[in-house]
């Protein structure tokens, strides 16, 4: 098993063990949607790793795993609480199918040609962004229709998990042959993302609602972050996409565990 798979394995494990959300259970629908967002973001990271490592079979498998995890999570949304949220599901499914189809085409092109042109990669990245926007819109609409919101600390942990997945994608894009230009994420933006993540993680650790259990979970995340942060900051001097993806996956997994702890506290 490669070192860069923790977040994918988490997504797959959650997807396989979690049944579809039941009616009048917005928390389960939102949890499934969070898994879908993380896994779909990871799929783009996996493509960059696949391309950057010259089509290595391990990264092809990782890409297959992350796309399956996203698809499984999308199928587990369950019964949604209102007409508004239900109306957004089919467009989201179509956006996912469109993105996944383009991703598959990129992989097939790389296997047949040994490279991919920048424009198709740019198009696929654009589709992934639209997918994310639609998933985010559905997330908010489910809360609105249900007249219920995810507990604040749970949401902050989820947001940080997604942000970490974004950072891993940005780093992987910089180190892929077509990554930097297609993603539009330059050095300055990556530096700002690292600063922002550090600030938000520190703020979460300072929340007065934390318990001994959540502090321990946060400490594990912070320890991994301390290992990862120098590599992210030295991106122009030392390229280590596999290391970054591995540590990022551990952080995403740790934050998802923390989000579950916060959710249990709010019941």
From TrEMBL:
Residues of the signal peptide: 1-23
Entry keyword Signal: yes
Sorted UniProt keywords: Signal
Name used for this protein in its record: F0F1-type ATP synthase subunit beta
Source species of the chain: Pseudomonas mangiferae
